[in-house]
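Changelog note: in this version the structure field was regenerated for every chain. One regenerated record is shown below for reference.
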Amino acid sequence: MFLSQISIYPIKSMQGISLKEAQFESLGLRFDRRWMLVDSNLRFMTQREYPQLAAFQISILDKELRVFAFREYLSIPLEPADERRLSVNIWESHVEALVYENHINEWFSGLLGIECKLVKIAGRRQVDSNYAVSSEDVVSFADGYPFLLTNQASLESLNNYLSVPIEMSRFRPNLVISGAFPFAEDNWKRIKIGECIFHVVKPCSRCIVTTIDQRTGRKMGDEPLKTLNQIRSFVIGDKRKVLFGQNLIAAQRSGSLKVGDLVKVIEEK
């Protein structure tokens, strides 16, 4: 088995960037989901409510983000110009964030047709204690965990059920592995990628975002969620959830990964 894809999503719910190699920190891959948009209530904005976010293309230069969407273009410094901070809401968490200048917020507000602000994570956001390996485990503006891993063979298995095959981008993973059996990842507890060890802490429950074209932001019917509900539906606690992919926490606080790194299963469940 080997690592076949690495992706980061600098601004939450916007397009990803494919990488050949990447550094990671305690929060996850460098630059991954360090930024996000919040609405007038300071609540996080995602493709669940604003599917058009998928049409926003991101690139990273030395000291800035570049965003292109709907024939409009904006350069954003990696660090806001001032130290203005707000407490923003993402799922059940409230976390301190730096706020960007008005002209940047107005640009996003104009394209989306809703008042919003761009923020960068500044405070500490802990991983759910029910799944954290230690009290030191933290996460950025990702939904809940520092890394999301998917398996290419699992996607190919799913596509056998679909009349129109989909790309892995629908699942927005950070790490894709190849050379495993379909859904082998369900049984992993600890894995080694290159020289780095990861705990496999929780399967990833999937939502309506999987039905959105990750280039155009258009909803593409009910698939793959409809089929996943038939073949990948499990009871977790007292709820039934659709699962695809696994959430990871790194055993070390920093490291590096590159496409082609060998993947070994250290411990199974």
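Spot check on this record: The mean pLDDT is 97. Residues 30-121 form one domain.
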